[in-house]
Amino acid sequence: MLNKDTKIYVAGHRGLVGSAIWKNLEARGYHKLVGRTHAELDLTNQAQVRTFFDKEQPEAVVLAAAHVGGIMANSLYRADFIMLNMQMQCNVISESYSHKVKKLLFLGSTCIYPRMPRSL
């Protein structure tokens, strides 16, 4: 259990899952929440992520950020989506480890596909 003064970085705090986690943490009395928009911090950029962790020094991280786009985009740009998401995940997890983050919650991303998939 984290104490209410724990600095928590919520990556993806404006997304569907991340915003729900943010609201839940606020409702439970956590007040040192840190979030950045994609315009403020590009999680695919390792140097930016390192600089962010150096400056903010979060004690806990919730990794709910992902590049998403729906069924059609996932179907058309499969490699792009997985590469971008793996870059974000590797950068955040690596910096969490390097900065001795006490707690890390990583939420994977997926897309729901139609009942009858098209052949490859």
Tags for this model:
120 residues; alpha/beta; 12% strand; 4 strands; globular; four-stranded parallel beta sheet; Rossmann fold
Blueprint of the fold:
Elements: E1 8-11, H1 16-27, E2 33-34, H2 46-56, E3 60-63, H3 70-76, H4 78-98, E4 103-106
Parallel strand pairs: 1-2, 1-3, 3-4
Helix pairs in contact: 2-4
Give structural notes.
- This protein is an alpha/beta fold.
- It has a domain at 27-106: NAD(P)-binding Rossmann-like Domain (Rossmann fold).
- The protein has four helices and four strands, in the order E-H-E-H-E-H-H-E.
- A four-stranded parallel β-sheet has the order 2-1-3-4, sandwiched between helices.
- Helix 1 (16-27) links the parallel strand 1 (8-11) and strand 2 (33-34).
- Helix 2 (46-56) runs parallel beside helix 4.
- The model has no long low-confidence stretch (mean pLDDT 91).
* Beta-strand percent range: 5-15%
- Look at the structure and name the CATH superfamily of the domain at 27-106: NAD(P)-binding Rossmann-like Domain
Gross CATH architecture of the domain at 27-106: 3-Layer(aba) Sandwich
Number of strands: 4
From the helix content, strand content and strand pairing, which structural class follows? alpha/beta
Low-confidence stretches: none
Question: What is the third-level CATH name, the topology of the domain at 27-106?
Answer: Rossmann fold
| Oligomeric description of these chains | single chain
The CATH class name of the domain at 27-106 reads Alpha Beta
Biggest beta sheet attributes: 4 strands, parallel
Q: Secondary-structure element order, as H and E?
A: EHEHEHHE
Nearest-integer average pLDDT: 91
Discrete helix count = 4
Radius of gyration: 16 Å
What is the terminal-to-terminal distance?
46 Å
Helix content: 40-55%
| Shape assignment | globular
Trace the largest sheet across and list its strands: 2-1-3-4
